[in-house]
Amino acid sequence: MKTFFAFAATFVSVAVAAVANNNNADQSAAALDYLMTNSPAGHQAKEDGPAPPGCYWDGTAPLCAGSCPTGYTEKERGSCGDGACCWTGYKVLCCKD
């Protein structure tokens, strides 16, 4: 989790520096919109839904590679699961057989 926040802080620093060096208000607004859409912070709000009883979402954002272990069946795939969204890969909803 610490690596995730370090990556997010670096991403924000680069984006803010790019905006600070640009005096054009329209481009600054576009850069901020891009940052909020594509940053980990901007992806926190979306959810595929909570896991029902006997199930859980597998896969860790931002680089997801969800899979179900033996004894569980994949019921659904999503980019966000019940939390932070994936930049790559998917989270999977695993339910007990």
UniProtKB/TrEMBL annotation:
Residues 1-20 form the signal peptide. It comes from the Eukaryota. Keywords: Signal. This is Uncharacterized protein. It comes from Gymnopilus dilepis. The lineage of its organism: Eukaryota, Fungi, Dikarya, Basidiomycota, Agaricomycotina.
